[in-house]
Structures are given as C-alpha cells and as structure tokens.
C-alpha cells in the first residue's frame, strides 16, 4: 500500500517553477486522472520506487522499452563497459552496424536504415523521405494515432494530445496541415474513397499497425491488407510506425503478427534498451535517396549514439531467447483475462485487448473497440476511479485512458496475482459507490 507522497508533492511543486506543467512530457502530469504525479527514484525488475519509498508494480515500463524489466543486469553491464570509452563521438562506430544487422534479421523489409535519437525524429524523416521519393505532398494518417510531435502529423493525434482533448496544436501553420488527411482507424470505406479522390497525390500512408496512443487498438487484418493493396496500386509508400510495437508485440513487430510488410518502418523504444533512440528504414531504392547518396536530407549529431546502440544490441540479443514472446504473452493473457473476469463478477462494464507484451483496457459496454471515437466514448470517470485506487495499492498503470500498457518478462505470477487481487477489491469498491 502507498503510505504517502509528501516528497513527490514537494518535488512537483519545485519542478513547476522550471517546467511547463511541472513535467517534460504532458501525460506525466497526471492531469487526465486529476492527480499529482509520482516522482520515481529507481526501478528494478517489474518494480519502480518513488521518492517517498513507495513500491509499485510497473505496467508502463517507460512507455514500452523496459521489456526486460528495469535495470536488467546484462543491459546495465554493457552500458557501463561502453560508456568508459565516451558517451558520444558524432562519428561512425561498429556498434551501429551490429545493431542494424540484428534489426534486419527481425525486419527483413528494412533493407537499409538510419539511426535517429527519437521516434519523433524517425517518423518525421520517414515522411520527408516518402515525399521526396514520390514528389507528392499529401499524406494519410489515422485519428488517434500519434507519430510524435511532428507539425504535419499533429492532426487528430492520440497520446498526450488526446489526453487533453487537442486534435491539433497552435503554432502549426495551416499550410503544413492542409496536406494531411486524417481518417478513421479501421475504416476501409474511408480509405478507399480517399484514394479514389486523391490517390495520385498521396505520398504515403503512415499508421500504427497496432495502435498504442489511443490505448491498445488491434486492427482488422483486412484493414492493413487494404492499405497495402491501395499503396501498391497508387504507388504510394506505406509507413508502419512500429516505434511502440517493434520487438514489443513480436520479435518482428506487427509486421510479423499480420504477415504484411511496410515500405518504410519506424522503430524506437526497445531498440535503444531504454536509451533515447529511433530508427527508420525500408526498401533500398527509397533509403538510397538519403544524403549523402541522394538529395533528401537527414542528419543527426547523436544518431547512432554508442551508449544507445549498446543497450539496444544487448536487449535484442536477449529477446532472441527461445519462447521469450510466448512467455511474455502468457503473462499478458493472464492479466487482461483476469481483469475482464473480475469486472464481470462485479457488474462493471469493461473489456480489454492484448498482443505480445502490449495491452489496453476500457470501461465500456462495447466489447469491440475499433477506433478513436470508441475510445473517446469509454467511461473516463470509472477509469479515473480505478486508476487512483489501484495506484494507492501500489499498481502503476498508465495515467490516461488513451494510453496502452506494457508488461515485462520480469512480471511474476506473484505480481499478476497481487494485481488481480487489488483489482477485485477495487471493482468491488467501485460497484458500491
């Protein structure tokens, strides 16, 4: 049980003097659940500890990358060894090639790739590459999908933008967003109609092949197949934003799950083992258009940072162990099926999704959640109550109904059983309110 958060409150008051909202990324402020954020001191395995000494079972995992759990000994040891040589060079190292080889084994469609310092930078660069290669301006994205705070992509975005009910951000010129068409996720008819009207002008379609920024939404395979078919027909580049799903839902990401290859893929999170990193890559004919080979510009002083490369190499090596993803999904299955059963027991309208090590749950009578509107219509008040009570019991879920959750290989049966015990108590309390 969480006893108090006095030191966290004091830390938040202090941070508000220096950072907008007291945080360096909006969702961390806990405004969606009308609460004060928890300031974290350390993490180990499936647990994180706040400044007040409270212990939490962590189902966020730094928003995905801590698939091995916090402070994994092998990852930490590899970082400690390489950091002795310096933290950055701004020059090529063998580490970049080693990581690229590991990535390509799991994502064969990434014939060539470029390292970046963030997922946002990867998606931004992928869009520029697609426009440069096709000599077209228009792009298609989907409502509730978030691809980083890129100007032309921050239209009907999910994640932090959805949390605050913002569909577009001030400071972005209309001239940039006028080329962005935002369609409903999983809506085949809308996509077909859009291509019929604008097909010859569409540079690319960018999509989260499993959405994680409007909670966890699993697409229909027909939807993804239709995107692939239409992009082939109109010579449009298909970009899968697998920053969240890459190495998380399967070793080969959503492309392995659905058996559909993208022209360009963006990666992040796990690829850096928790360090800041992003990757974009795809067919050789596109990637060779990047400078210095071609005219499309991309650069980054910290791209291929040796510390991030090392953490990523060690993480991916460990993900290659036999039955890793079977074990990971079994943990997820136990958690989400258990939550659904307990909610039903207490007559709480509730449903959940999971794939690999990624999950989502929703307070709704609707048993199939397909798009941003479905998520927006879920009961946010019940979510807030559930979040707050569970947090008080030491269970750390995402502080927003628009965010996916993540499980690590270090979550034990004991952790999951305790989580379900707390959920049973919480649902009972909620049903009596």
Structure explained in plain terms:
The protein has 433 residues and is of the alpha/beta class. It has 2 domains: 6-71 and 323-431, Alpha-Beta Complex (Aspartate Aminotransferase, domain 1); 73-319, Type I PLP-dependent aspartate aminotransferase-like (Major domain) (Aspartate Aminotransferase, domain 2, 3-Layer(aba) Sandwich). Helices cover 39% and strands 14% of the residues. Helix 14 (380-392) packs across helix 15. The longest helix has 22 residues, at 324-345.
Describe the SSE topology.
Elements: H1 6-15, E1 40-44, E2 47-50, E3 55-58, H2 73-83, H3 94-106, E4 112-116, H4 119-134, E5 138-142, H5 159-163, H6 174-177, E6 180-183, H7 188-198, E7 202-207, H8 221-234, E8 237-241, H9 253-258, E9 264-268, E10 278-282, H10 284-287, H11 306-319, H12 324-345, E11 351-355, E12 358-362, H13 372-376, H14 380-392, E13 395-396, E14 405-406, H15 413-431
Parallel strand pairs: 3-13, 5-6, 5-7, 7-8, 8-9
Antiparallel strand pairs: 1-2, 2-3, 4-10, 9-10, 11-12, 12-14
């Amino acid at each position: 049980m969480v006893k108090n958060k006095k030191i966290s409150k004091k830390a938040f008051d202090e941070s508000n003097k220096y950072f907008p909202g007291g945080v360096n990324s909006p969702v961390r402020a806990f405004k969606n659940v009308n609460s004060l954020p928890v300031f974290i001191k350390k993490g180990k395995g499936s647990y994180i500890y706040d400044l007040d000494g409270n212990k939490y079972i962590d189902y966020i995992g730094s928003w995905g990358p801590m698939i091995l759990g916090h402070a994994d000994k092998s990852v930490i040891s590899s970082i400690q060894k390489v950091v002795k040589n310096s933290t950055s060079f701004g020059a090529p190292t063998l580490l970049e090639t080693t990581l690229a080889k590991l990535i390509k084994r799991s994502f064969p469609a990434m014939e060539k790739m470029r390292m970046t310092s963030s997922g946002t930078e990867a998606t931004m660069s992928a869009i520029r590459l697609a426009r440069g290669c096709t000599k077209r301006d228009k792009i298609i994205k989907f409502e509730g999908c978030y691809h980083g705070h890129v100007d032309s992509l921050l239209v009907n975005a999910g994640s932090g933008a959805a949390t605050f009910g913002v569909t577009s951000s001030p400071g972005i010129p209309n001239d940039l967003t006028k080329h962005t068409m935002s369609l409903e996720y999983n809506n085949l008819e809308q996509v077909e109609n859009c291509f019929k009207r604008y097909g010859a002008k569409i540079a690319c379609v960018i999509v989260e092949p499993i959405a994680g920024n409007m909670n966890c939404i699993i697409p229909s395979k027909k939807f993804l197949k239709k995107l692939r078919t239409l992009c082939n027909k109109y010579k449009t580049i298909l970009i899968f934003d697998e920053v969240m799903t890459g190495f998380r839902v399967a070793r080969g990401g959503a492309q392995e799950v659905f058996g559909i290859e993208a022209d360009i893929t963006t990666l992040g999170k796990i690829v850096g083992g928790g360090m800041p990193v992003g990757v974009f890559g795809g067919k050789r004919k596109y990637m060779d258009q990047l400078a210095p080979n071609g005219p499309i510009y991309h650069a980054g002083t910290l791209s291929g940072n040796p510390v991030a490369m090392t953490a990523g190499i060690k993480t991916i090596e460990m993900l290659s162990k036999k039955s890793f993803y079977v074990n990971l999904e079994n943990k997820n299955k136990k958690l989400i099926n258990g939550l659904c059963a307990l909610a039903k027991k207490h007559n709480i309208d509730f449903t959940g999704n999971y794939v690999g090590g990624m999950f989502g749950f929703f307070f709704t009578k609707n048993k199939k959640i397909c798009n941003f509107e479905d998520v927006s219509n879920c009961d946010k008040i019940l979510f807030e109550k559930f979040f707050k009570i569970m947090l008080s019991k030491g269970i750390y879920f995402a502080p927003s109904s628009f965010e996916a959750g993540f499980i690590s290989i270090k979550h034990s049966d004991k952790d999951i059983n305790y989580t379900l015990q707390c959920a049973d108590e919480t649902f009972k309390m909620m049903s009596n309110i």
